[in-house]
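Sequence in, structure out. Go.
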Amino acid sequence: MSRWRYGVLALVFWFVAGPALAGPNAGGTLVVHELGLNASCEINPDPASCSQIDVEASLTPGLCWFNAWKVFAAFPDDAAPRLKGVAMGADFGPAVVIAYAEVPDPGSDFVVMENGWPYASGGTVGISFGTTQTSQFVPCYLFAGYAYYVDRFAVVPHPAHPRGFFDDSEPPVEDYIAGFGWLGFGQPGYAPCPSPEAAPDAGDAPQVEQSWGKIKAGYR
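Output:
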């Protein structure tokens, strides 16, 4: 089976999954980290934990005009996540310009983009990782861009899949994302680092608002 077809099948499970109890990704959050650029215009290393998140980007043009930032899934220290997929959206103001964006492993991660993701505010994405992620701090998306004046870049719930975190079982267990962060340009941002108390009641899985066939049709 081709990698593309495998990714499609993995995403099909997302859109047909029924009600589920809390799974291994409960209590996790999404945070946005400014990676910074060194004197050679190279991206600095990823942080090792949510406590190292930098939520404010400079507006001052220097040797490198661009900023670089990543979205991470962060889980409590005592969690044992099994993250196979993420669904999320982005909200940012007119001052923010996205010049480049990609998943951590473009060769194996499968992506469904809608509504102008990643270049338009209001865009959404579904990511199926090639390998199930089991660490407490998981990179989900890399961005490069800048802002003309004070603004912010925020991750937000996917309108059709507000739970947002999916494990590797079949059908997948969906867990609510317990918090969403943002990166401030020229102003403070916000990083909702997770804790065991942050996990909301799982409740019933939301009704799917779009069919998988309709979503696939836009990518043929």
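Check: Residues 57 and 185 are 5 Å apart (CA to CA). The chain has one domain: 3-217.
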